[in-house]
Amino acid sequence: LDECATKQHNCQFLCVNTIGGFTCKCPPGFTQHHTACIDNNECTSDINLCGSKGICQNTPGSFTCECQRGFSLDQSGASCEDVDECEGNHRCQHGCQNIIGGYRCSCPQGYLQHYQWNQCVDENECLSAHICGGASCHNTLGSYKCMCPAGFQYEQFSGGCQDINECGSSQAPCSYGCSNTEGGYLCGCPPGYFRIGQGHCVSGMGMSRGGPEPPASGEMDDNSLSPEACYECKINGYPKRGRKRRSANETEASLEDQAETEANVSLASWDVEKTAIFAFNISHISNKVRILELLPALTTLTNHNRYLIESGNDDGFFKINQKEGISYLHFTKKKPVAGTYALQISSTPLYKKKELNQLEDKYDKDYLSGELGDNLKMKIQILLH
After folding, report:
1. Which residues contact 133 (CB under 8 A, 6 or more apart)?
2. How far is CA 76 from the centre of its chain?
3. What is the CA angle 200-304-177, rounded to 5?
4. Which pLDDT belongs to residue 271?
5. Which of 107, 149, 112 has its CA nearest to residue 132?
6. Ranges in the chain, pLDDT < 50
7. Which of 12, 74, 131, 179 has a C-alpha 20 to 30 A away from that of 347?
8. CB within 8 A of 224, min separation 6: which ones?
9. What pLDDT is recorded for position 121?
10. What is the β-pairing status of strands 36-39 and 30-33?
């Protein structure tokens, strides 16, 4: 009797007829238990069935593998392999980098990939100590700048700040001869004049560096150095590597030597802090006597400067007239009385705001007091006896 054909059996899946009876069988993926078939859980029997990146899901009689994000099933369907997102659609603007399980966007030059987020952040190149050499480093978005103090320029080849020779530029800064210094320059004066302040020349009766007559109390000491020659102090601590730091006397001496090679130029300076003293016999004075002569040494001040008696002339005994670019301090026709008169002479540049803006565009704002020199402040005493 074929129990399987006549359906006289209680098998769950397959019935196999035998002589005098029948047996039950189960399909692959199931285990026979009497007449029942129990599903095999392949996911527990082999934990690496879907690989390290796959997730095993048991199904009746079998199993399926699911993949984590960034992975897909290989051709066998039993293992997960990395998806190359850079081959498909991505939102990267500056190139794509595939990584296991995902991708990262490349960053443009001067930017770095954020360690946590998929973003580009500015790279601070200035954290590298030697990137600008002796110059100071200023970080910018995506880049950096090597900055030098006024009077210096950055040389990429040497990797440091090099002195600018302003005297060799096409825009001559000085009217009567120029002497380059480290970080700046000095303007000379015509013979018989002294440099006073930055950018001015002064001459007067008795103002000499020596001679048969006793020097005036405002006499310049040969060993003193005018403030404008001391550019060691004006370069913001820039280290002169491998360079010998010159003393004040050496600086002055070298400038005087340089001046001797230039015809008709004087670099002698008058200390602006000292009072120049002039003595006159009251019976011999007239309004034609020129007590003091003043003229600007900077080309930017030529025809754009005025010298004034700032104080000490309340009675109006003195005045300043200008003729052919030279300003003269002399007596007025009003007769003064004997005594001591303390005057302060000052200067003011004659530039409109628009012209000043043009000058600042043309030159560095911090370049030698804004290219207009210092406003002169000179003290004089006139003794009338």
Report:
1. 146, 158, 159, 160
2. 61
3. 40
4. 85
5. 149
6. 209-263, 364-370
7. 179
8. 271
9. 85
10. antiparallel
Do the beta carbons of residue 270 and residue 222 sit within 8 Å? no
Yes or no: say if 188 and 259 are a contact pair by the CB < 8 Å rule: yes
Range 187-196 burial, b when 16+ CB lie within 10 A, else e:
bbbbeebbbb
- Four-CA torsion 158, 163, 167, 170, nearest 10 degrees: 50
For the segment 98-113, what is each residue's pLDDT rounded down to a tens digit? 888 888 778 888 888 7
Report how far Cα 313 is from the mean position of its chain's Cα atoms: 47
Is residue 73 a contact partner of residue 80, using CB atoms and an 8 Å limit?
yes
The answer for residues whose C-beta is within 8 angstroms of residue 256's C-beta and 6 or more apart is 267, 268
What integer pLDDT is reported at residue 118 of this predicted model? 67
- Separation between Cα atoms, residue 243 and residue 252, nearest integer Å: 18
pTM above 0.70, yes or no: no
The dihedral region occupied by 192, where left means phi > 0, alpha psi between -120 and 50, and beta the remainder, is left
Determine whether 207 is exposed, middle or buried from the number of CB atoms within 10 Å of its CB (0-12, 13-18, 19+): buried
Instruction: Give the burial string for 90-105 (b: 16+ CB within 10 Å, else e).
Output: eebeeebebeeeebbb
Distance, in Å, from the CA atom of 281 to the CA atom of 207, rounded to the nearest integer, reads 18
Question: Of all helices (H) and strands (E), which one includes residue 64?
Answer: strand 62-67
Strand 96-99, strand 377-384: pairing:
unpaired
Nearest to 267 by CA among 170, 167, 137, 127: 167
C-alpha to C-alpha distance for 198 and 376, rounded to whole angstroms: 8
Q: How far apart are CA 104 and CA 98, in angstroms?
A: 6
pLDDT of residue 208: 59
What is the pLDDT, as a whole number, of residue 13?
Answer: 82
DSSP SS3 for 356: helix
Q: What single DSSP character describes residue 369?
A: G
